[in-house]
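Obj: model holo form, ligand = calcium ion.
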Amino acid sequence: MSVDGERHGEAAMLAVAAGLGAVATGVLVLALGGAGRIANTPVDVPWLWLVVAFGACEAFGLRVERRQGEQYGFTAALVPLAAGLVYTEPGALVAARLLGVAVVLLVVRQRRPAEAAYELSIHLAQTVAAVVVVRAVLGDSDPVGLHGGVSVGLALAASYAVSSVALAVLIATVSRGLPGWRMVGALARTDLPSGGLNAAIGIALALALWNQDRVAVQLLLVAIVLACIASNRVYSRLYERRRGLEALRDFITTVVRSADMAEIASSVLGAARSFVRADDAVLLIDTVTDGDPGRRYAVGPDGIEEQRTSLVEHRADIARLVPDGVPCRVAVGADAPAWLRARTSVDALAAPITAANGSVLGALVVTHARRKAASHFGDNHARLLGELAEQASLAIENGLLFMVLEHEAAERAHEALHDPLTGLPNRARITEVIEESLQPRLSGFGRVGLIVVDLDSFNQVVDAFGHSSADGLLVQVSGRMRHLLPESAALGRLGGDQFVVVMPNVADTGEVVAAARLLMAGFDPPFQSEGVLLALPVNIGLAVYPDHAVDGQSLMQRSLIAADAARRHHSGWEVYDPMNDPATPRRLALGADLREAIESDDLDVCFQPKVELASGVVRGAEALVRWTHPRLGRVRPDEFITIAEHTGDIRSLTMVVMRKALDQCRSWRDLGIDLSVAVNLSARNLLDLHLVDDVDQALRDSGVPFEALTLELTESMVMSESQRSLDVLSGLAKLGVRLSCDDFGTGYSSLAHLRRLPIGEIKIDQSFIVSMTVDDSDRAIARSVLALGRDLGLTTVAEGVESREAWDLLTSLGCGLAQGYIVCPPLTPRQFREWLDRREPHELATIPEVDEGPATHDDPSRTRGV
Ligand code: C2E
Ligand code: CA
Ligand code: CA
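Output (holo structure tokens):
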């Protein structure tokens, strides 16, 4: 009962006690005040005798316990009452009874004051009622004989009625208005026979005393004692049985409503304890699914406790507890399971939990606390426990079934969210993880890093090694990655050869970059497949919330874009850069405008000379595309070229530039200026099988000699292992045009590798040129690259030469050509002509004059060259 309920019960008891006590005391004082004992009684029953008798009846009488701790007494008190009615003054009788009962209640039973007050008020009211009735009925008659017997009998009936009414009132009060009459009726049915017997004995005793028949008195006293004991026994059994049935009914109604094992176990254990009045109960249940442990439920300080045990041990325990599959007592010896020995040192009772098919599913065990020396369990208890276990079995079997279903549902859910091959969270789950990590949190940095790891050319691995080996490699890859990542990072597989890492709560982009670098390095050692060592290059892209994206979906998209950029740039890893993103709103708008610009011939081409370092003679010029957007102004070529690659307009863009460049070259040559022209190609151009024909046609149309055209390809394009790119490259080489390796030094290519390709020129990247003037080791590298290039018969070009210092250094290192602001910036065709006319062969620009206005871009920090 809850604390509230308990308080409510106590208040009700006190209220009933006060009411009853007041009425009874009023009647006693007003109606019976000063009344003596019934006239000319022959015996004087000593007052103390009555006190002891009432006390003894209270002490040894039957205690009936209703659920939740409410107790009601049924005693042989009618016997001393009958004697007292006849032989004692009402006041003394009341006092004797209250004293005897009070001593037992307060001293022996240690009742709470409210309970004691309630019970005493009932004793008081019963006694007063009996006295009133006996005196009213008897009048002046002789108490001996029929009249006397009837009066005492009626008095005892009235006394019983008083206690019943008090009980009904109490129950009604406690249950807030529910009538307690059913309970009273139920008690009356079992109480009346014994009440009648008590009354008869009481009357007989009174008569025997009256007649001073000592033998009869002694016999009656013996009979009283025996009757007390017998009725007590019958009552206990009857009552316990009824209490058991009530508990069983309650238990069944709660248990069938639940499919949750812990809840079922809690009901079963609670019912078991109250059924057989055990101190402790334990429920053992066998497993449901393969690989599951056995379960042992017990009531702990914080509610139901579930312990999982090895199945072998568990089944041995069950077999030991209920060896024959029937309820039985269990001797708790040294060989008993430890958990059982910890609970009791005496015996325990166990009953089997059986499935509908008769197999034993588990066991229900009840014990008494260790400190109790002797067993309290009898056959009666074993039967009760068996009954309970039988009822519980159905619910437990259902519960187990539910667990199986739950388990299967969980497995389904796991399958739906995990990649079957690697066991890693799949795209669906990782999407959830990302969303979860984006939830606002109270502490921490609130940044979330996302890394996409894309295995480069994994399809070729699949082609070469077959699917099962490729699967094995993917498992190895996932294992290695998990090992490299911090504990807090979540690793998932997006499908195919793509993995993803979610890093919740990172401090900054640097932390994510560090993790990406670690992963990158982790892929250095080769993997092993069927005895073959295999290098698996990766492209890693990363994006950080909220720096690069403000929702999970775009965070993922942008990491993928970064990985794609890493693949295109052969850079290994890249942080998301809107430059590489075809899907920003600006980019989408630019895409449409760019197509229009190409179609309406709004693109311009600038030229930047390539000058021979040794002689200062202009040998050629690089054509660089320019686009001035009608609203946005100058757009950087890197930006709109990326867009053209994505929109598929790169072919027409390249050919527009090519035709303009060749036209210029034609016009220079017409003026007798013998210059070559260089045009940049994009990676996409190399996948275009029409390129060779397009170039061929443009050259024919322009009339420029084939060898006067140089096509610049970035280092990563040159290093591409795609067969199609190689085919296009050799097709171009066969035409007789020159191929130049642009941005040399930014990738991984080696000169030795270059030699196998039809490359005639290398352009050393401007970042290299800058660092060369300040860093000794870079200078050493530049020196050997230039020397090797020369030895291989390649033209060496330094790009981005901005300073006199770099110019001189390159000259001393034997570099062939130079391009950069030190000579002049990219110029319009007209400016270029004027520049050519004006220029003295060895003249260098002292202050790099840049004619081009600033280009517009989302990210000004990336704007270079201005
Ligand atoms: P790139 O091929 O490496 O071109 C050289 C870039 O360096 C040009 O930038 C040029 O203006 C700049 N530059 C020249 N001298 C110096 C210098 O002394 N210092 C510095 N800091 N920069 C210098 P631009 O014109 O903005 O072009 C950027 C990139 O766009 C080019 O890099 C090239 O990859 C691409 N691009 C330009 N035009 C075309 C084209 O017609 N087709 C293709 N596919 N790509 C093009
Ligand atoms: Ca170039
Ligand atoms: Ca370049």
